[in-house]
């Protein structure tokens, strides 16, 4: 609403100035109309609030605008699916639809935190979102038709499809997070290599799964018995 008001004001001011400067008449009218249109577009565009993802401006995040577009598209599609799920009468079908919605919401929430995963969300909602909406719309139509034999058949098919969709959403979330996991592994390797280059000895993790230990050069091995200290000296 604020954009429209600012656009009208800017357009009106420019139109009045243009009409006055051009000396009025038909020429002034043409100039004022052109400036009014230009002022409206400029005023509404400049006052458009910038998209935020969480508490951050989208422009301040890597791939922020692309992630914002993917999130907006996913939320729009998910809202339509949610409205359809509320029309479902069968409790099991509605439960499966709600589980799918929750799984998709988790993917959206993750992309809001890690905007680099926007492509996964965009692919997922483009490929599966429209199909899911179409599936639920068709089921609602069959369920409300009163044809009980067809409703029973549609019920089974819809439940099976929604279960597949839920697993797919969970799989896409896992794929998105896996990129971050690979980054952690790479950072860990880099840290160990840097420590080794600086003369520190890195020990492999023990067989029972304890974390790797880093000992300073020249320091003794930590003893496991009651008569050794951290520097390997007998008490």
Q: What can be said about this structure in brief?
A:
It is built from 6 helices and 4 strands; from the N terminus they run H-H-E-E-H-H-H-H-E-E. By secondary structure, it is mainly alpha-helical. The C terminus is likely disordered.
Describe this entry's structure for a reader:
This protein is mainly α. The chain has two domains: 2-46; 56-186, no CATH class. It contains six helices and four strands. A hairpin with a 2-residue loop joins β1 (52-53) and β2. α1 (2-21) packs antiparallel against α2 and α4 runs parallel beside α6 (148-197).
Element layout with pairings:
Elements: H1 2-21, H2 25-46, E1 52-53, E2 56-57, H3 64-85, H4 91-113, H5 118-143, H6 148-197, E3 201-202, E4 214-215
Antiparallel strand pairs: 1-2, 3-4
Give unreliable regions as ranges: 205-235
Give the total of domains: 2
| Helix content estimate | 55-70%
Radius of gyration: 31 Å
Q: Approximately what portion of the residues adopt beta-strand conformation?
A: under 5%
Structural class: mainly alpha
> What is the molecular shape?
flat
| Strand order in the sheet with the most strands | 1-2
Q: Write the H/E string, N to C.
A: HHEEHHHHEE
Question: How many beta-strand elements?
Answer: 4
How large is the count of helical segments? Answer: 6
Distance between the termini: 79 Å
Give the rounded overall mean pLDDT.
Answer: 74
| Major sheet attributes | 2 strands, antiparallel
């Amino acid at each position: 609403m604020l954009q429209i008001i600012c656009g009208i004001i800017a357009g009106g001011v420019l139109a009045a100035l243009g009409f006055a400067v051009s000396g009025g008449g038909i020429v002034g009218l043409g100039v004022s109309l052109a400036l009014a249109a230009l002022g409206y577009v400029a005023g509404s565009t400049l006052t458009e609030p910038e998209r935020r993802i969480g508490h951050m401006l989208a422009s301040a995040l890597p791939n922020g605008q692309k992630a914002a577009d993917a999130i907006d598209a996913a939320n729009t599609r998910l809202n339509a699916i949610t409205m359809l799920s509320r029309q479902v009468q069968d409790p099991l079908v509605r439960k499966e639809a709600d589980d799918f919605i929750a799984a998709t919401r988790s993917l959206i929430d993750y992309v809001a935190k890690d905007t680099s995963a926007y492509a996964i969300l965009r692919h997922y909602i483009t490929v599966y979102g429209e199909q899911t909406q179409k599936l639920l719309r068709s089921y609602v139509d069959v369920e409300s038709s009163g044809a009980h034999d067809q409703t029973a058949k549609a019920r089974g098919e819809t439940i099976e499809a929604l279960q597949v969709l839920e697993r797919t959403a969970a799989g896409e979330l896992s794929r998105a997070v896996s990129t971050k996991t690979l980054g952690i592994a790479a950072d860990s390797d880099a840290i160990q290599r840097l420590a080794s280059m600086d003369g520190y000895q890195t020990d492999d993790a023990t067989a029972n799964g304890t974390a790797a230990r880093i000992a300073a050069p020249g320091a003794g091995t930590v003893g496991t018995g009651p008569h050794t200290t951290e520097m390997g000296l007998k008490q």
